[in-house]
Amino acid sequence: MKLRIRNWHIVGTVFIILFGTILHFVYEWSNNNTFVGIFGAVNESTWEHLKLLFWPALFFSIFEYLLIGKYFNNYITAKAISLYVGLLLIISLFYTYTGILGRHYLAVDIAIFIISVMISQNIGYRITTSNDKVSRIGNIISLIAIIILIIAFGLFTFNPPQIPLFKDPSSGDYGI
Known about the structure:
mainly alpha
């Protein structure tokens, strides 16, 4: 079973990278459809780019759960932790390197996305296959943490806080 879950995490990594790349463009392709904007990046802010990891990882995790995740006591906790780690990595790495260099580079931004996906998936795999048991309350807290992210991505697409994380650096706009 451990080999099977490893293979699923590899497939998930590829899925997240490919689907996340598509989500970068889907809002524009949809002629700025409001519903599509919940899932795709609506501008070039760091927050909107977090959707490129979050939504594909969430959708794949649900699919994976139905197939094999339900057989692991700590699957939900593993996915909650891996989601938060991936998002925090993108934010930390992006602001660290742009703070040092004074600007961003597309190739580095893409590398950060790919590295964040790979690390978050690896962490999810390691937690899922560990022998640690997660209590029912631990899984409930993890599920609530995921639900908070779902709500935040929907809410902040339309009503983002007026802080740099949510600001489009090229236009100065926030959200839709």
